[in-house]
């Protein structure tokens, strides 16, 4: 029972409130019922407040955990991106039309005449090479994670530079898996390379630049089922204007197992 004067809980068989001393006989039944109802509302309100506080505390804790996870994921992606882009950074720094000594200075690395992987000489002809210390295995063949290959002309100047990200093929020589064949018409003239990468949801596994033109060929390797459900493998070449980093042309070829390396020669 609730005291109608001070709202304290009292026993049913008492005549006076033990807290405020009120004489219970001075109050009618309506006072007790009204006070009991108010007390119940207060109890429910307090319970709701306690529940909200508990829920907010859990939400904040979950939010904090998610924030930490997000930071870790972003950090891993950044580290992974930096690791993958090292070969591309060197590729972009090679000065076409200059000698290898200038290329060493411009890129901050040392280009060598020979590779530690004999198979690279069969993949592409080159005069100098810079490759990663770490290696990957593609279809049982050991390769560097990435390699930058230079070809010199009769004047001993660099006439061609090629970059291979072999790590992109480590899970399969077929490259990135797509649900459907890419429509090359979706890649439009003047489109930025970064927008092409975003649309295709992949990065080039090879890039080739030559002294005789002002474009860079970006080669994407992917596989997708045809209308009959058979898996097909494609090399998608997107030619980028070096002046403004936009698309100039697009070409696609289908590959088989024999040509999975020679296709970017």
Describe it.
32% of the residues lie in helices and 24% in strands. The protein is an alpha+beta fold and 265 residues long. The chain has 2 domains: 1-85, no CATH class; 86-264, Roll (Nuclear Transport Factor 2, Chain: A), CATH 3.10.450. The strands form 2 sheets. Strands 1, 4, 5, 6, 7, 8, 9 and 10 form an 8-stranded mixed sheet that branches. β4 and β5 form a beta hairpin. The N and C termini lie far apart (92 Å).
Summarize, please.
The chain contains four helices and ten strands. The protein is α+β, with helices and mostly antiparallel strands and 265 residues long.
Number of alpha- plus pi-helical segments: 4
Structural class computed from helices and strand pairing: alpha+beta
Give, in order, the helices and strands: HHHEEEEEEHEEEE
Average of pLDDT: 82
Write down how many β-strands occur, each being a DSSP E stretch of 2 or more residues: 10
Properties at a glance:
2 domains, alpha+beta, Nuclear Transport Factor 2, Chain: A, 265 residues, eight-stranded mixed beta sheet
Tell me the layout of helices and strands.
Blueprint: H1 29-93, H2 100-107, H3 120-123, E1 128-131, E2 135-138, E3 141-144, E4 147-152, E5 158-164, E6 176-177, H4 193-200, E7 206-210, E8 215-225, E9 231-241, E10 246-255
Parallel strand pairs: 6-8
Antiparallel strand pairs: 1-4, 2-3, 4-5, 5-7, 7-8, 8-9, 9-10
